[in-house]
Amino acid sequence: MVPWDKTVQAMIDWIEEHLDEEPTLTGMSRQIGYSPTYCSTRFRETVGVTLRSYTAGRRLCRAAIEIRDTSARILDIAVTYGFSSQEALTRAFVRAYGLTPAAYRKRPRPVVFSIKQNILFPDDANREGVQEMESILTSPNVRVEYIPAHSYIGIWDDSATCYMDFWDRHDCDKICGIVDSMENVADPVVCGHTAGWYYKDGKRAYFYGLGVPADYKGDIPEGFARKDFPGSHYLVFFHPPFDFLRDCGEVMKRVEDLAWNFDPSTKNFRWNEGVCQDYQRFRSELFGYEVLRPVVKL
């Protein structure tokens, strides 16, 4: 891990916590414990944009969410997120999203939000021996869950077999920014930033996007497609919450080994993957890691 990656991640986390408080380079550097010049230089080298540009993008994103999801006055939202006037917010909004805040509130549509960056990954922690919390690894388990009929808006990539394959071939910031902008219409069960597998010529391939209700009538983002799926039971293979930085790889291996080698007849089911797709849920500190495979009762 590059020595200052932890510092840059701390900067990103601090910015996120102060988006509605006029975050300043001086205030952040005082909190992080490094000079403003050091913070600014390292941030740009690691993230690829200036700290000022990144903060402006995140504040505009947060303003867009409030415009979409609340009835607060656009002027008040503009002031909260550091814009000098409603007109200043409107100019920034049109440049970024192609429509005015008022038009967006009246008819929200998929746009590319500026997403929160993540600098630290499990491989970094493994190289550094990072230990953020006590390791709590266990054997994965299985339960049955019913998911009602729903639609899915995403990108299905016949050549990708897993998460890393997929992002080697696609623009993560753009796709995740679009999915973020559609969280307000996400299905409550198959929510935003879900992913998983489907079968192409007998081989597993990977997809990414979000679930939406079966009666969704909104826009489909460019480059995405929509598919409809009936209600189905799923076998959910899962591991409870764990330390993402240290144990992610091992947890995923344990869950997927169980999922791909499980005999559903032991639960009185057969696979239903010709009709529905496999889902992947990942919230390491909230519920852990899950792989869902559709089944039909015998």
List the helices and strands and how they pair.
Blueprint: H1 5-17, H2 25-32, H3 36-47, H4 51-69, H5 74-80, H6 86-97, H7 101-106, H8 122-128, E1 141-147, E2 150-157, H9 163-169, H10 172-181, E3 192-200, E4 203-213, E5 225-229, E6 232-239, H11 244-260, E7 269-271, E8 278-283, E9 288-297
Antiparallel strand pairs: 1-6, 2-4, 2-5, 3-4, 3-8, 6-9, 7-9, 8-9
Helix pairs in contact: 1-2, 1-3, 8-11
Task: Kindly describe this structure.
This protein has 298 residues and is of the alpha+beta class. The chain has eleven helices and nine strands. Strands 1, 2, 3, 4, 5, 6, 7, 8 and 9 form a nine-stranded antiparallel β-sheet that branches. A hairpin with a 4-residue loop joins strand 8 and strand 9 (288-297). The model is unreliable at 124-131 (pLDDT under 50).
- Low-pLDDT ranges: 124-131
Query: What is the H-and-E element order?
Result: HHHHHHHHEEHHEEEEHEEE
Output mean pLDDT: 91
Strand content: 15-25%
Percent range of helical residues:
25-40%
Helical segment tally?
Answer: 11
Using only C-alpha atoms, the radius of gyration works out to 21 Å
> Which overall shape is indicated by the principal axes computed on the Cα atoms?
globular
For the secondary structure, the number of strands is: 9
Structural class comes to alpha+beta
What is the CA–CA distance across the termini?
Answer: 50 Å
Largest sheet: 9 strands, antiparallel
